[in-house]
Amino acid sequence: MRVERYTPADRTIWDEFVGKSKNATFLLQRGYMDYHADRFPDHSLMLYDDSGELVSLLPATVKGDVLSSHAGLTYGGFVMTERTSGVDPLVWLDAVTGYCRSQGFSGLVYKPVPHIYHRIPADEDLYALFRNDAQLTVRNLATAIDMRRPVASSRLGKRAAKRQRRFGISVEEVDDVNLFWQIIVDDRRVRHNTVPVHTAEELESLHAQFPSEIRFFIARHEGEIVAGAVIYVCNDVLHLQYAACTPEGKAIYATDVIYHDIIFNRITDAAYFDFGTSNEDGGRYLNAGMVAHKEEFGGRSVIYDTYFLSFAK
User: Fold this and answer.
1) In the predicted structure, residue 22 carries a pLDDT above the cut 60
2) Helix runs in the chain, H state only
3) Eight-class DSSP state of 197
4) What Rg do the C-alpha atoms of the chain give, in angstroms?
């Protein structure tokens, strides 16, 4: 087993492997990963077997003496193919451990891809982590609707549709995130005293590279934009990256109307709609009200985990 550090010359090979994998999404394409390389120094790894065949990728960054899979992304463990067996990640993790020790890293932060994003089952890495005594350090609770077997809900498909008709709310897909970005910024500041992870300029650039995967939606009431949402299309999952509304939009539940319109009228072949996590403090705090609102749509829980593997002797 040979472990090599990724270089820009490997971009085409990397992206082709991601595209053929069973568990990676477009977030692991270099065009997405590299947009914030100035904030998250890349140290991704490429794993080759004894015959010289590329068998896995590990999107990674480095901070201090710790390697992380990938600090700038929500997830990004071993990228696997349909040929990956249950034994393979055991071998890969041994090889990565040896590489990390040779580079002076004291540990590895590992964030596996949540199962709903897998094209076919791909939990082989979780077993390898267990076998290597990796410590579970973060467990965040996300809420997702299984669109193939939706839970009966008073809100999903009923209340939102009624509100759309009652208030005359229209939903549009747009190409310019600036049409509603200030609504997102204001909402984050007022409700959470934070700023969005992305800037409008970054999202515009990413949308230009991934127009089918990064999509922008707005809701209008009486001609005025009252809500907006950024949706990531990841394999068969619709991931809600950002959504917010104006005070007027909040009064008429405009974001609910956007969700309903996307799910039932625009992207109807998705397997899941992922509202994202509802946690703070590494999963130690759960916003129960936020979870309850998402569950009213018929969503149920999906776990986003983070593990730490120490290389201390």
Assistant:
1) yes
2) 11-20, 30-33, 88-102, 124-131, 160-167, 181-192, 200-209, 247-251, 254-261, 288-295
3) S
4) 20
Q: Is 243 exposed, middle or buried (0-12, 13-18, 19+ CB in 10 A)?
A: buried
**Residues forming a β-bridge with 102:** none
Residue with tokens 């393979």: 88
pLDDT digits (tens, 9 = 90+) for 217-227: 999 999 999 99
Question: What is the rounded distance in angstroms from the CA atom of residue 295 to the CA atom of residue 293?
Answer: 5
Q: β-strands 285-286, 107-110: how paired? A: unpaired
Instruction: Let me know: does 32 contact 210? Beta carbons within 8 Å.
Output: yes
DSSP state of 96: H
DSSP state of 295: H
- Measuring CA to CA, which residue among 308, 313, 311, 312 is closest to residue 111? 308
Of the CA atoms within 13 Å of residue 191, those in its CB half-sphere come to 15
pLDDT tier, 288 (very low <50, low <70, confident <90, very high otherwise): very high
CA 40 to CA 111: how far, in whole Å?
Answer: 15
Q: What span, in angstroms and rounded, lies between the C-alpha atoms of 302 and 279?
A: 12
The token pair that represents 213 in the structure block: 């995967």
Q: At 147, is the secondary structure helix, strand, or coil?
A: coil
* pTM for this model (two decimals): 0.94
Strand 45-48 versus strand 66-69 pairing type: unpaired
Q: Has residue 192 got a pLDDT over 70?
A: yes
